[in-house]
């Protein structure tokens, strides 16, 4: 079982940037698809970005395209989410996930809070 630990969240003003990290432990995630999801207050969890094991395919929610970028460093067993031009509507708890495919995530982190002030 892989353990995922998110970090890098915090409070930022609109227009600012944050970089989230997801460090995996327990086993290598080099063969896993990885994803970032978020849950805003009163809303359901939604997909933000995902990346295949090789990094060859990256998918983004329409709401973050052009602003967010997912990447991975398999040597460090870590996945990142660079978030630029943040908006108040990006405020949410952000979760990292691992899975066999880009559409089947089975392991989840505890989440990190991102708050964007207007």
N-to-C CA distance: 40 Å
- SSE ordering: EEEEEEEEEEE
Uncertain runs: none
Biggest beta sheet attributes: 7 strands, mixed
User: Gyration radius, to the nearest Å?
Assistant: 13 Å
| Number of helices in the DSSP assignment | 0
Which structural class should the secondary elements be placed in?
mainly beta
Backbone shape: globular
What is the count of β-strands? 11
Strand content: over 45%
Helical content stands at under 10%
Question: How is this fold's topology laid out?
Answer:
Blueprint: E1 3-7, E2 10-13, E3 18-25, E4 33-39, E5 46-51, E6 58-60, E7 68-73, E8 78-83, E9 92-101, E10 104-108, E11 112-117
Parallel strand pairs: 2-11
Antiparallel strand pairs: 1-3, 3-8, 4-5, 4-9, 5-6, 7-8, 9-10, 9-11
Quick summary:
This protein has no helices and eleven strands. The strands form two sheets. Strands 2, 4, 5, 6, 9, 10 and 11 form a seven-stranded mixed β-sheet that branches. Strands 1-3-8-7 form a four-stranded antiparallel β-sheet, with no helix packed on it. The chain is 0% helix and 56% strand.
């Amino acid at each position: 079982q892989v353990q995922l630990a998110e970090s890098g969240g915090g409070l930022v003003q609109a227009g600012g940037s944050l970089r989230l990290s997801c460090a995996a432990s327990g086993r290598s995630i080099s063969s896993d698809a990885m994803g970032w999801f978020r849950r805003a207050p009163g809303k359901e969890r939604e997909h933000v970005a995902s990346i295949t094991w090789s990094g060859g395919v990256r998918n983004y929610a329409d709401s973050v395209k052009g602003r967010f970028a997912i990447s991975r460093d398999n040597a460090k067993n870590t996945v990142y989410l660079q978030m630029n031009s943040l908006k108040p509507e990006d405020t949410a708890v952000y979760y990292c996930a691992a899975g066999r495919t880009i559409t089947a995530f089975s392991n989840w982190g505890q989440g990190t809070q991102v708050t964007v002030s207007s």
